[in-house]
Amino acid sequence: MKVTFPHMGYLYVCVKGLLEYLDIEVILPPPTSKRTLTLGTKYGPEFACMPLKLNLGNMIEASELGADTLIMIGGCGPCRFGYYAQVEYAILKDLGYHYNMVVLEPPDKHISELTTRIRKITGNKSWVQVIKAIRFAYQKSRAVDEVELMSFKIRPRELVLGETDRALAKAIKEIDNAASPQQLQLALLRSKDIMNSVAIDPNRPVIKIALIGEIYTLLDPFSNLNIERHLGRLGVEVDRSIYLSEWINDHLFMGLLKGIRSTKEYCQSAAPFLNHFVGGHGLETIGSVSVYAKRGYHGAIQLFPFTCMPEIVAQSILPKVGDALAMPVMTLIVDEHSGEAGMITRLEAFVDLLTRKREFKAN
Ligand code: SF4
């Protein structure tokens, strides 16, 4: 059995860690590229949102490398994600890619529906081993988030352009290579040293922008056109409203781990602008604006893929929220036609606006 799964930013570090901990052979799709998107766009439904197209491209490319078993997340709710796995499976089958697909989703009737599916991948490994593997994978996701958070603070203050990106790539590799919890502890220390070795100007004034919106676009640098890097180079310290480890704790561990930031805070802050779930992270997008305004952020950028229903709902409400909280909010919608140059121009204009606003306030 050669198992694969689609990319979503650094998700691969965590899932690969989990599977390899259980001695399961993993075939990682090549890093998402223009080819991935071209494949997904060619074979995916035209009006599907971009994550489906990129997932499809990843699956085709992984199959070309010999993967035969595919893990996909399912779900239910107003957004289309819940039936992506089935749509992707049907498309792949029509194209002649024969995968065993294991869809992990909340069970309809009994927990045994889920455990049976997990067993398809883990075979006869004991549940104790599976739980240890999940814990290890979670620790990896925490480690990745920690170094990413460091990069957000370091990048706008770096003295040599691009140094933070190089350090981050090395740090992630250290975490990815760790094969046991003990190795991971040392890898995290080394990763932090690597990040701290980047020369910075700690006194450089920076603009603070929150990146909010749809989870895939927020976590995946290919689909968000490396927005964090571009903002960093414009002297902006960013924060993301969603991190992978927080999402895992909120949704898979049901908030069991205490002391970890939770998106629940955003949901609670969405009223009076939006008072109910609209699918995806639409509610969180609205609530996060007021949370970041209180934290002293200068502005927010909403990111989502073209045709994403929950974020379209949020987008229509955001101008009101921004006005009420005196927080400028810009929306960026991405699809297969988006280009980095156009986005950088819009980012420059937004950062310019925020800088002038800050200077105006200071005087
Ligand atoms: S949240 Fe939006 S982009 Fe994500 S699957 Fe749902 S509709 Fe598509």
Please provide a brief summary of the model.
The chain has 363 residues and is α/β, with parallel strands linked by helices.
Estimated share of beta-strand residues: 5-15%
What is the CA-based Rg, rounded? Answer: 21 Å
Query: What is the count of DSSP helices, taking H or I runs of 4+ residues?
Result: 15
> What is the oligomeric state here?
single chain
Estimate the global geometry from the Cα principal axes. Answer: globular
Strand arrangement in the largest pleated sheet: 2-1-3-4
The secondary structure category is alpha/beta
Ligands and ions found? iron/sulfur cluster
Distance between the termini: 65 Å
Low-confidence stretches: none
Fraction of residues in H or I helices: 40-55%
- Major beta sheet summary: 4 strands, parallel
Number of strands: 8
Mean pLDDT: 94
Q: What string, H for helix and E for strand, traces the elements in order? A: EHEHHEHEHHHHEHHEHHHEHEH
Key terms:
alpha/beta; 4-stranded parallel sheet; 55% helix
Notes on the structure:
The structure is a single chain. The chain has 363 residues and is of the alpha/beta class. Helix content is 55%, strand content 11%. It contains 15 helices and 8 strands. The protein has helices spanning 11-21, 34-43, 50-64, 84-95, 111-122, 127-154, 163-177, 181-196, 215-219, 227-233, 244-252, 264-269, 282-294, 309-325, 340-362; strands spanning 2-4, 25-26, 69-73, 100-104, 207-213, 236-240, 299-305, 329-334. The strands form 2 sheets. Strands 2-1-3-4 form a 4-stranded parallel beta sheet, sandwiched between helices. A 4-stranded parallel beta sheet has the order 6-5-7-8, sandwiched between helices. Strand 3, helix 4 and strand 4 (100-104) form a beta-alpha-beta unit. The longest helix has 28 residues, at 127-154. The protein is globular, with a radius of gyration of 21 Å. The mean pLDDT is 94. Iron/sulfur cluster binds next to helix 14.
